[in-house]
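Researcher: Quick one. two chains, 569 residues in total.
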Amino acid sequence: MTFVSILSIFVLACFVGYYVVWSVTPALHTPLMAVTNAISSVIIVGALVASAAAAVPGAKWLGLLAVVLASVNIFGGFAVTERMLAMYKKKER
Amino acid sequence: MHEVAQSPWVALAYLIAGVCFILALRGLSSPATSRRGNRLGMAGMTIAVVTTLVTHEIASLPEILVAIAIGGGIGWVIARRIAMTAMPQLVAAFHSLVGLAAVLVGVAAFLNPTAFGIADTVVPLVGPSFASIHAASRIELILGVAIGAITFSGSVIAFLKLNGTMSGAAILLPQRHAINVGTAIAILFFAYQFFATQSPLDFWLVAALAFAIGFLLIIPIGGADMPVVVSMLNSYSGWAAAAMGFTLGNTAMIITGALVGSSGAILSYIMCRAMNRSFISVIAGGFGAVAGGGGGAAIDRPWKRGSAEDAAFLMKEAGQVVIVPGYGMAVAQAQHVLREMGDKLKHHGVRVKYAIHPVAGRMPGHMNVLLAEANVPYDEVFELEDINADFAQTDVAFVIGANDVTNPAAKTDKTSPIYGMPVLDVEKAGTVLFIKRSMGGVGYAGVDNELFYRDNTMMLLADAKKMVEEIVKALD
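Model:
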């Protein structure tokens, strides 16, 4: 992909983010932080690329360590969000 | 170019992952759709990881799977065990991991640029061949590493402060603004050097200085400003992911980075607005370090003290009670007994509502989660702008663990440090019941609260949890 097409995606995604986040109800701001945390660990993609390549051992081990860290975040982030969201209940009538 | 042939399906898969992440945030517009959103987020992550694994030539798959299992296991156990009151420090700790992962990925990409498809092999006439990283990739790489490092060290400090391991007070170094500006300029200089020469020394200097500035930026910020700090670090972790996404040309990472980046930025903005402070003044730090500047802490003014029985009697007879929780409720772990009190009042035919100020607690939405944990239905919980008009028709406002966010001086006293901050109009209620440990202490902003000395205010001096327990007993 050319730099400009990547940049276009980025800029448009910023606008999407702006409108989507403003529509999040303030009551769910803590789960919002937890889930954004989990999804920002999509950086694991870079970590996997680094650990997949064996040519430079140092880079591979750093990549594997990054995979561990990102996995803590992915599993922890989604699980804790799920746990929080399960607690939000409407009034029983 | 890239060593792995990129079929259009691969790009499509990452795009789908990105869309899943957008829908995950979109689901949070209402508690009813939020869990489906979270599942979509998990699906998106699975798609991204699986796509990466099947489209790259992997030297050793078991090692990677073990790494995922170790990290995943740790994360899952933490998520199960963590107390809801500890959520702010957990989020800060998670931010630090994203930051560190970004740094590690950046370093790995620097050490092995060919694997990331960001370099051309140059064979000079003399000497060994080397990988020359593309100019654009150098910028993205150094940006990603710098932002990741700031996120990491900043989040570690935020974690230590929120966890109480380190004092929550603002720590002010002499000449700190000069030090920060100097460090920032040095980072920019070495980043430019790296861009120009791809020299490893400049790369490491940028990383080291970025770690340092993350640390320097957060230590002067006090505990109650943490909602802004946590949101800001949230934003940084997003920008770090986006920078890495540019390096890899990966749509899922770029979309996610943009989403998380704007999410954190918007939350910081909301928090600053709720404190009527500029983002710059929060980041400059030191707020609340000098206590008792304006307002004059005249402790010897007359005030009324009430007992648990008085409070129970007043609330039992009320038509509507509005409960205003703050960080003190979280510290005292009083949310469960508070809900019990609400239930008892409902049995007496009282309408019970909860009023949440945006900066109550140590992170955005902190109070809402604690009340949800205690089984308070979310349709009884209201935000500031939705409930403020209600106080005039409220018989009793019950303030527990909040202080500055109820101070009427913010509306009237131009000399007060919190002047202009939106506050809950509790003083308009028939009676204000205010739980506080003692009359001596002041709120975070270091100002005395006008509210204590009003005719319609009754002070309940005790530990929040104990006082509510006694009220519950008196309600029987």
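The mean pLDDT of chain A is 92.
Researcher: Thanks, that's what I needed.
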